[in-house]
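Worked example 4.2. Below are the chains of a multi-component assembly; read each line carefully before continuing.
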Amino acid sequence: MWYLCVFYHRLLDYRKPEVESLAQLFGVTSSNSLEWKLPKHHHSDSPFHFVNLPSEQIAQNVANRSILVKGIFELWGEGSSSEELEESIKNYPDERKLPYLTSDSTFKIAVETFGKVISFEEQNKRIQSLSYIPFKGRVSLKNPNHTFWLIETDDYDSNNGLPPIAGRRIFFGREIGAADRKLLPTYQLKSRNFLGPTAMDAEMAFLMANQAQAKAGRLVYDPFVGTGSILVAAAHYGAITMGADIDIRVVRDGRGPDCNVWSNFKQYGLPMPIALLRADNNLPPWRLGLKEVFDAIVCDPPYGVRAGGRKSGGRKLLKGVIGPYTVPDDKRTGHIPSTAPYSLVECVHDLLDLAAKMLVLGGRLVYFYPVVREDESIDTTFPEHPCFKLVATSEQMLSYRYSRVLLTMVKIGPYTEEIALAARIKHLEFKENHLKWLEEGNLHSAVFSPADNHLKQAGDTKISKESKARYRGKYV
Amino acid sequence: MRLLTHNMLSSNIKGVANGFPLKIEVVTVVEKEVEFNIEFLKKMFSKVEWKALAEASRTMGYTELPENADASMLDSDDFLHKFHHALLELHLEEGALVCPETGRKFPVNKGVPNMLLHEDEV
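Applying the procedure described above to all two chains together yields the following structure tokens:
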């Protein structure tokens, strides 16, 4: 059945993938797959979409668990004027309407606008004008059985960062479900005891947990766990969590007994991670026979913009030609190994190899991938792997020239001998040509070098940039 | 560190052919309650190396696990609870994991195993 899906007007790229991944979690399969449709004259960045889902139960589950769905509605009518709306509601079959209008039920009507503001009196007037709908129940504003929404948009073109919509549109529908955004203030970072410089903000962490389809009984792993901000969201949905980090100060010590990764879970009454360990993603400590154990791997890899990646083997790599560094035997206990910078390419290679090896079939790898923006668009080649299918890419612009893209990959094939061999060869190549990869895969310099150099190199791109329309949907 | 983690780890020092299972050196063991989830246990049963788990649980002072186990035992509630306790509730707070081949010790402090290698082990 087709439903009206109204989104919050933020993180535009993340909205549809979230609904799609939750729909799959709640039982939509490839045979009854979901479909999207836009209202007439609407731009794809519009908050209004129509979505086809197999059942009201699924629609409700999806909406209630989502972060970006303002509401999923059974649409009773729509039109470009109140007359058209009335006509359309009257034509909607009675057997769909009457069960929700009975005298023993309570209801409320909410008025919502997009791209304009209407006064309280005006809102009341709109509600009064719906008198042609035979409401028999009592009004209850606090806890109604049924909530109806009257939603209006005006016509405007691409101003104020709003998507272009031509033509006024009014929708009326019955609410099936809506996001519980109250959990965001509960989990917001400023309330959290233990924070690091790159802690993932709550909204994004929950979006990642939804992309990963975290739920009770599933094992979710974060190889760059840091202060645990992503796993907190996964644990909220009941997943069993596990994290590793190369920095022992973060993963073991924190800032005292009630200010560490464990306390971040205790604070919210969530079950603690089943394991935290200090390990290097470049040399993972998993046993050979261990395969396909994680249901999801979710992480924000260190790209070197805010926090640089580190891997084992610092002095050896730097002094490689002179001869490897040996730790004297009497200094072995409590020795703190030096680390070397970890290039983005190598980091992503290791992550994909780990995920290919250790995710269950159908398991999901969800991670951020940084991109340098050129000429208002991004380079669309993302990492690929024979074991994975890329199912969602959601861009979040961080600055004029730099974005991060949340990639969701689903494991579709087994980790074969050939893939393992290719990965081993690549691993050695990275090791031998460490400096070369470090330079090539250095996003830091691309982000922090003066932008002028880029424009000079590109010549005429400067002109085209200025003449571009000012629509900034993705900044939202 | 729980025994589930122990069952997943091995010594990855360069040149070590079989770094599994790591021997456990116990200083402090604590018990931490974990919610009982049958689905999760059944899933993990097929991934766990049973002998290593039984051996490790004995080292930690828990002797209730049988020497051998097969999937048919998952129907027994009693077995599931013992498996749950050994896998998830026994927690090595302080101690070390010892590489079976080289004897190198990976310290476990505050429940966190430090699996990072030294420069000359990479």
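Take a moment to check your reading of the output against the notes. The longest helix of chain A spans residues 417-432. Confidence is low (pLDDT under 50) at residues 452-476 of chain A.
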